[in-house]
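Hey,

Quick one before I head out. I ran the complex with aspartic acid overnight. Inputs first:
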Amino acid sequence: MTVSSLNIAKFGGTSVATMSAMRNCAKIVAAEPATRVVVVSASAGVTNHLVSLANTPLTQAQIIDIIEKIKAIQYSILQDLGKPPELSEKLESLLEALIDAAQHEELLHRDDLKDTLLSFGERMSSLLFTEVLKREGVNAENFDVRKVLRTDTTFGEAVPQLAEIERLASQLMQPEIIDKVLVTQGFVGADEIGRTTTLGRGGSDFTAALLAEALGAQSCEIWTDVVGVYTTDPRITDTARPLPELSFEEAAEMANFGAKVLHPATMEPALRQDIKVFVGSSKEPEKGGTWIVRNCKHEPPYRAITRRKEQVMVTVKTPKMMHAPGFLQQVFTIIAKHNLSVDLVTTSEIAVSFTLDNPANSVAEKLNRETLDELRDFCEVVIENNYDLVTVVGNNMHSAAGVSSKIFWSVRDYNLRMICYGANPHNMSFLVHQDDSTEIVKELHRSLFE
Ligand code: ADP
Ligand code: ASP
Ligand code: MG
């Protein structure tokens, strides 16, 4: 096998939730000889259960109750596989280790223990999927991703160390994939001294892209529960339709601005190494999907609409800002120190407003609290909650006449709080009240795509 024909396939949570879903995935892998690395998510629901174990103070009975739910998901697959002794033993010992981890009394205060706990979902699903693949006649082997996916120690949102990943993957995976298919865990990594880390929710897509980059793969397939990337989240409107192709830039904007089908960082490795990314449904592979490539045949002004929920709008003011050089720098130095990404910014002479991502229980939420405390030390800080960020993604949006007026006309009945337009040819974003965002996306979709 030459490196140029290598494909990495990633299967998301619903794709590995049951035996029959796993069987669909196994058929996809078996049908493509270039697929030599398979990245799996935790079975649907498992990571959410693990997050509640990690983040909520629970009684012993509540802990047992949650673990039973996780066990039920994994055991139903084991049952369908006929409980082979070796596999049953391995799953049993993972579950025992999970119970130990969940009962660690310092769990609520230690981010490293939380990440170890969160890693069990992918460790269990990859074990089960390896067996399903073997039954499909594939020479599959389970591979612990922590041996190669080196990260820093930002638990919960760890940053991959690219050079190390490439070195380790070449050394430990490359020789194996000549005659085997390695089944490994998405979302999980390890720091320099072997402590388990995680890449942030939805991180398995990112893992697949990172391994594709490290191994010099030609393509990376993201198999999920929808037939590709759509014009907007098909859960918002059933008039959303799958897009046959997208450019790296468009996909990166969509992922960044809330299209959950791709983790925000997925396109970075693809862009660097020119790796084609395919998104399709593991349930209906025959329906095709979206190809994400460097150059598309068409570059329409409007391609898709995304929404990111749970945004906070922060306004910092100080009378001192009037003609005071350095104020903005001070504000953004604090934000950068906490590694937060700011999407929208608007400024006036004495105030600057920006948005922060704020999903409950997230690493960002915790960092936001620390950031805001530091800002309060030197300026007045006003925080407004309950906003969603709506983005129209497209091409040459800043230079074509009429692009913005069409968008504004569609949402003329709503109050837009912050508008960002012009800095990037691929998007126009604004903040809207969360109660309005569904209607706004539907309205925009009607006017731009239907
Ligand atoms: P997986 O578990 O396979 O990673 P996710 O739930 O993370 O799946 O992502 C798939 C979901 O992303 C879809 O079910 C869909 O609701 C949502 N989604 C949001 N925006 C889009 C979009 N533009 N196109 C397709 N799916 C989208
Ligand atoms: N299992 C992780 C999550 O649910 C990672 C993933 O599915 O991509 O967030
Ligand atoms: Mg996902």
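The radius of gyration is 23 Å.

Talk tomorrow,
K.
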